[in-house]
Design a protein that fits this description.
single chain, alpha/beta, Rossmann fold, N-(1-d-carboxylethyl)-l-norvaline Dehydrogenase, domain 2, 2 domains, globular, binds 1,4-dihydronicotinamide adenine dinucleotide, binds 1,3-dihydroxyacetonephosphate, glycerol-3-phosphate dehydrogenase (NADP+) activity, G3P_DH_NAD-dep_N
């Protein structure tokens, strides 16, 4: 298949390697001319994936129109809040070229201000005639490990039934295993909201907290992800899968995670601006904490960890205040919470 990967960051680059290994013709689009030149001439992308050699059959372009012209499949690997403008430009080129493509995105977050999932943004921006289907690929998949061909498993979902099956075939290699999931909302919400929990757990690690509080935030974090997700129409069981628990584990326990490391840096005394600048790569959890907090208020869904992290990131509450807010909440029942999730699922499936 002719595939254009939009975004020459860490994940766009490692997915290009997977797709190239599967005998697709891969063209990467990057807005940075130096990176494009490095990929074409030296077959490396040293800023994002140090010590990794790319195949010479992977090409790169700084022309979005050329990428649109090449593609039967577009893989969108830019940050969530760049998706709307990138997709809008692509739609214009597809119209000019009078062609239709399949689209898959791999971004993990909610759009600021609209609180939309990425597939909702894409559905809004792309004309129906330009896309055969819109899909998501998500799950526990650090770019650094994908590039090293570490066995990796992810989920894919699509708006119609067909798209996800095509994505499964196109991406699946002996080290990259893709599962089809029919819950687009759950797959996108799981991928987006785990970044909030990873930031919080990274901060805990940075303050020197032990394993008990980390397990508490991961587990109760998953619960609040499921609570908001189910309210938005997801199947709560999706959050036990790769795009839920899987991605939460890989992100909230790993030094590869930019969200986790950002939390550590904040605990180490850097400001939010300093930490994100020092990272030099997107930390989706920051914007998504804001979007998810506001969305939870709008839907009246209790998300105590998200709320506390929002206060910590944007309103300067201290770690002590954050812990007091969480530990001194009114007492509650775990089984009652799980029962409510199941009741929402029954309501959603009617
Ligand atoms: N790095 C990882 O391990 C994984 C990342 N993801 C998700 O994939 C998305 C991209 O992440 P990464 O590749 O890691 O980020 P990154 O920060 O490494 O790279 C982002 C790329 O997007 C480009 N970009 C940003 N704004 C743009 C715009 N307006 N137009 C064109 N290009 C633009 C940047 O120049 C850069 O090349 C994020 O939503 C992330 O959550 C998903 C799974 C794994
Ligand atoms: O989503 C990821 C792994 O699945 C990567 O997480 P970070 O964006 O925190 O690095």
């Amino acid at each position: 298949m002719n595939i254009s990967v939009i975004g020459t960051g860490s994940f766009g680059t490692s997915l290009s390697m997977v797709l190239n290994d599967n005998n697709n013709r891969v063209m990467m689009y990057g807005r940075n001319q130096d990176t494009v030149q490095e990929i074409n001439e030296r077959h490396t992308n040293s800023r994002y994936l140090k010590d990794i050699k790319l195949s010479e059959t992977i090409t790169a372009t700084a022309s979005l129109k050329e990428a649109a012209a090449h593609a039967e499949l577009l893989v969108l690997a830019v940050p969530v809040n760049a998706m709307r403008s990138v997709a809008s430009d692509l739609n214009g080129y597809l119209e000019e070229l009078n062609k239709q493509v399949l689209v898959v995105h791999v971004a993990k977050g909610l759009e600021l201000n609209t609180y939309k999932r990425v597939s909702e943004v894409l559905e809004e921006v792309f004309d129906e005639a330009r896309v055969s289907d819109i899909c998501v690929l998500s799950g526990p998949s650090h770019a650094e490990e994908v590039a090293l061909k570490q066995p990796t498993t992810v989920s894919t979902a699509s708006l119609s039934e067909e798209g996800a099956e095509i994505i499964q075939d196109v991406f699946m290699t002996d080290y990259f295993r893709v599962y089809v999931n029919n819950d687009m909302v759950g797959v996108e919400i799981g991928g987006a909201l785990k970044n909030i929990v990873a930031l919080a757990v990274g901060a805990l690690a940075g303050y020197g907290f032990g394993d008990n509080p980390k397990a508490a935030v991961i587990t109760r974090g998953l619960h609040e992800i499921a609570r908001l997700g189910t309210k938005l129409g997801a199947n709560p069981l999706t959050f036990l899968g790769l795009a839920g628990m899987g991605d939460l584990i890989v992100t909230a326990t790993s030094q590869h995670s930019r969200n986790y490391r950002c939390g550590q840096m904040l605990a180490g005394g850097l400001t939010l601006k300093e930490a994100t600048e020092q990272m030099g790569m997107v930390v989706e959890g920051v914007n998504t904490t804001k979007a998810a907090y506001e969305l939870s208020e709008q839907h009246d869904v209790e998300m105590p960890i998200t709320k506390v992290l929002y206060g910590y990131l944007f309103n300067g509450i201290s770690e002590d205040e954050a812990f007091t807010a969480l530990m001194k909440r009114e007492k509650t029942s775990e089984s009652e919470g799980l029962k409510q999730l199941l009741e929402s699922q029954i309501k959603n499936s009617k």
